[in-house]
Amino acid sequence: MEVDVEHTITDQGETTEATSYQCQKGEGRTLFLDFASSVCAIDGAPARLTGAEYKMLKLLTENTGSVVTRDMFLNRLYKDRLEEPEVRIIDVFICHLRKKLGSFASNLKSVWGRGYKWLEGGEAVTKKSYQTINGLPPTDSKRWNSRRKEEVVLAVKNGLLSFEEACSRYSLTTTELERWQTQLKLHGRKGLRETKMQDYVRQAY
Fold first, then answer.
1. At 185, which CATH number?
2. Global pTM?
3. How many Cα atoms within 13 Å fall on the side-chain side of residue 78?
C-alpha cells in the first residue's frame, strides 16, 4: 500500500495546502483525488461520486487514521445552511460511497458509536478470524443463536459492515440490531440468548 499526498511548494520553500491524494493497493489499483477539480478516479476511471460523497471522502483522507465523527461530516456538508438533516443521513451517504469505492471500500471503517475512519492499508480492525464477509452468517439465516448475533454486531463494530448494510443483508429492523448491540455491550454473548434478552428487557422497565 502506498499513499502519496501532493503539496504546492512556495518560492520560500514552505509547504501549503495539499492539492491531491493518491492511494495505491496491490495489483496496481489506484485511487486518486484531485482537490482542485474535485474529481475522484479509481484505476484512471471517474468514480462518479456525488458532491456530498466527494466531500466526505476528502474529509476522511485528510484525517487518515483518525476518527471522523458524524458531526464533522455534517459541518463539512451543511455548514452554510441554517438547518441540518438528521445525523443518520451520514450513514446512508457512507453506504452509497462504499459501493462506489470498489476494492478501496475496505479502507473505510466504521468506528462503533463514534463515526468513520480511513485506513491507508484497509486492514481489518478485528483479530477474530471469522470476521470476513465470507465468514459471516448466511444471508438467508433463519435461526439466530447468540453466536450468530454476536458475529453480526462485531462486524458492524469493526467496520466490516455498516449498520445499514447489516440490516439490509439480514432483513433486520433497526430496533432489532440496536437491541443486539446493547445486549452484547451490557451482558456479553449470554445477553443475546432469546430468553435472557426478554429478561433484561423486562428488568429495564
1. 1.10.10.10
2. 0.54
3. 14
